[in-house]
Amino acid sequence: MIKLRSAVYNADKNSANVAVALDQLRDYVTTHMNTNLYNGKGSVYPPIQLKYTYQRVLASESQAAINSNQSLYTAAQSYCQQQDSVDFSGRNRVPCVEQYVETHDTSLPAVPSALYEFSFVSPTWSPDIAGWSLVVTVICGLLFLVSLITDYWFRRNIT
User: Fold this and answer.
1) Rounded to whole angstroms, how far apart are CA atoms 77 and 93?
2) Among residues 53, 54, 69, 142, which one has the least CA distance to residue 104?
3) In degrees, to the nearest 5, what angle opens at C-alpha 123 toward C-alphas 24 and 141?
4) What is the tens place of the pLDDT at every residue in 23-63?
5) Domain locations in the chain as residue ranges
6) What is the rounded distance in angstroms from the CA atom of residue 96 to the CA atom of residue 106?
7) pTM over 0.70
């Protein structure tokens, strides 16, 4: 599990296929008992955070916002110049550009970080060596209790 978790972090850092690494980690954790994604004391929750992927998405979104704002400003200048083509000083165009930008706001929605945070829960019981060992241990414990009770009962009733 530690190797799979490291593979997810490496894929995230190296801009590789994070989805495949996450699927492998999820498949392992959700089918094996006692798997724990936490790194020890002071671990963050959720334990898998794709920091680099999130940063790349934020950079992409901010670049898209910059491009959108540049095209919006150009469109505002063009629109206001058509509205008042006689004014050469631009003094009257400033309020027009401000109004155009306010009415045509193209702000992009914020990217929620929760889309890049993962936590997988291991099952209480799974049909692997640990799971079957647990079943055998419980059965042996029950048989031991039954033998103690029957031994006590026979000793009490015989004497």
Assistant:
1) 8
2) 69
3) 135
4) 999 999 888 887 877 766 666 677 888 999 999 998 888 88
5) 2-126, 127-159
6) 17
7) no
